Amino acid sequence: MISRKFIPIAALLTIVAAAALWLTLRTPEVYVQGTYVFGTRVQLAIYGVPLERAQQDADAVFAHFRSMHRELHAWQPSEVTRLNQHIAAGEPFQASPELAAIIRAARALSLQTQGLFDPGIGRLIRLWGFQADQFDAKPPSRDSVLREQSLHASIADLTISDSGVVTSENRAVALDLGGYAKGWSLDEAAAILRQRGVRNALVDVGGNLLALGSKGAIPWRVGIQDPRKAGTLATLELRDGEAIGTSGDYERFYRSGGVRYCHIIDPRSGFPATQSESVTVLVRPGPHAGALSDGASKAPFVAGPALAMSLASGIGVDSLLLVDAQGRVWDSAPMAERVRFTDPALRPARLE
Prior knowledge:
metal ion binding; transferase
């Protein structure tokens, strides 16, 4: 279902979605439309465009999102599931140009993050019960996890030819692009909007956000969700072309025996990551800023504060905000210059 609003008065809009809170002032020139896709809430705000045209622009973006969702789904019939079937059978697969581009970029990012971001561990994600709309609240046995982990599946095992033929010597590889496709969709949305002449918009896909232009003379202001209580931990202003993404343990998780199991799996152990409650990255403008904002938060989340900054800087990200497993807040110097904490007394530790 799609909801449409053309905002007639000035007021404060607060939206909490997955890892981010979206804040913006409603004015007569801001059109907001929302829908549900990629298993999450999606919102688009367009500034300075007439109502009918803004509706058409939003419809074009959401139609593309629905198409991406169908083709990239990890457990319902899709191009990705067909690819995984071919890999399991030891057969080559002719990927579409769109999927081949995503795989190449995700594979490169995995290699740059020492494999801590790895969309090739879909079988482990399924084993933990996270390839479902509702999670099974019973974790798998330790032996079953170790057996699966011993197969050492990784997106690095894939070879993609110039023509898009995907092969793998490791039949245990199964792609799950849930930690990357939402960010990729931000870049696709930005391209669609620019092609349609939209210069000022804010795209939110499950808490991953990308800004185009501004809201008139006012920058788009967004918030970062507190991982353990309702409301924001901090807010910041997004500049034209910047993207922000958060990975957290507070949306997709279940508890069993008093233990929280989150959907982000540590590829090294095969078990859910436990070093962080949330990690937010701010990415500079670029053709794949959205995709990077989604993928770049995963490795620091898995590694925790000791290695977070070196992993992020290795992929060109210097603005990082992390809440560790003990609830302590950390930030990098560039992020400290941009964020405004809800609690003015908060003094984060410095990520180096």
